[in-house]
Amino acid sequence: MKRSLIIFLHGVGSNGDSLAPLGEVWRHSLPDTLFAAPNAPMPFDMGPGYQWFSVYGVTPENRTQRVLAAGLAFDGLIARIMAEQGMAGHPDRVVLVGFSQGSIMALDAIASGRWPVAAVVAFSGRLSSPLPLMPAAATPVLLIHGADDQVIPAWETEHAGKALQETGVAATTFILPRVGHEISAEGVALAGQFISRTLAAVAK
Predict the structure, then answer these.
(1) What is the average pLDDT score of the chain?
(2) For the whole model, what pTM was predicted?
(3) What SS3 class is residue 36?
(4) Cα separations (Å) of 142 from 3, 48, 91, 130?
């Protein structure tokens, strides 16, 4: 059985430990999968924790440029983790799982075509990549968002799903009722099932 790797990408002001427990939940159904939960490259500039890009003074107009600028450090981190886990040169066996700002980076990784990974799961995120999108179209994407999210509105995920589908990406969207800016038990179950199906197909 081919080994696979899931890399967790946390939200702004948090750290890798915040998403690491998902690995424990999924480990029994993914026995041949390794898990990595790194800290983002930048210290959070408004408190403890880390960030993929600064949200200080961020606007819809400048967010895309910040995501673009964060790409170099992001790519270096992903490449290093893959090498450490024996996955260098095998992005087709890697899954990116992001939350909030981590989802923005995960979606950019495939929307830009830089990382043709096995799959992406984006919780509570948005698509903020520069146009035109040049996605890794073979990468399936699962987008999950809480309908009651007061930090990033759920329509951002709906927009992301439609934009990715228009470029040929197999994107599936779930808007979960009575869920805020968080990862719910239902979301964890949906993501686990999606990852299991995707990696089983890759292993054939």
Answers:
(1) 96
(2) 0.97
(3) strand
(4) 21, 30, 17, 20
Helices vs. strands in the chain: H and E counts, helices first = 5, 8
Could you tell me which of 107, 115, 123, 91 has the C-alpha nearest to residue 10?
123
Count Cα neighbours of 67 within 13 Å in the Cβ-side half-sphere.
Answer: 26
Instruction: Let me know: does 3 contact 33? Beta carbons within 8 Å.
Output: yes
204: pLDDT strictly greater than 70: no
Q: At what angle do helices 101-111 and 154-166 cross, to 10 degrees?
A: 10
| Overall average pLDDT of the 102-128 stretch | 97
Tokens for 157, please give them.
């995920």
Continuous segment of H or E residues that includes residue 121: strand 119-123
pLDDT digits (tens, 9 = 90+) for 123-149: 999 999 999 999 988 999 999 999 999
CA distance 12 to 83: 25
